[in-house]
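Recap from last week: sequence in, structure out.
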Amino acid sequence: MQDWDLIGKNILLFVVDGIFGYFFQFMGHAIAIHTFNKRQIKPKSFLLMTVIFAVSAYLIRLLPIVFGYHTILNMIVCIVVSVLVFKTAIYPTVLAVLLTIVSIL
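Predicted structure tokens:
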């Protein structure tokens, strides 16, 4: 028999952690990437970038590896997605991701 109270608490924890733990953190990444590339923030691409970063970070953090490797993989994914999908310049994107990672840690 399932404990619905426990299931509800886990769903609430997942939603709160997803919104506050990932989404807002990667909004900072997206803002920094747009700023360093001197691009105007368009709401559609900004939200898409943030959601892609947040989902990828969540999936990477599910992997059973050490936390430092999670950070490195998140940085690589942010840089690759920004450059390939959103057509940003490589150097400003790398700089933006490194600075936001350092400021968040």
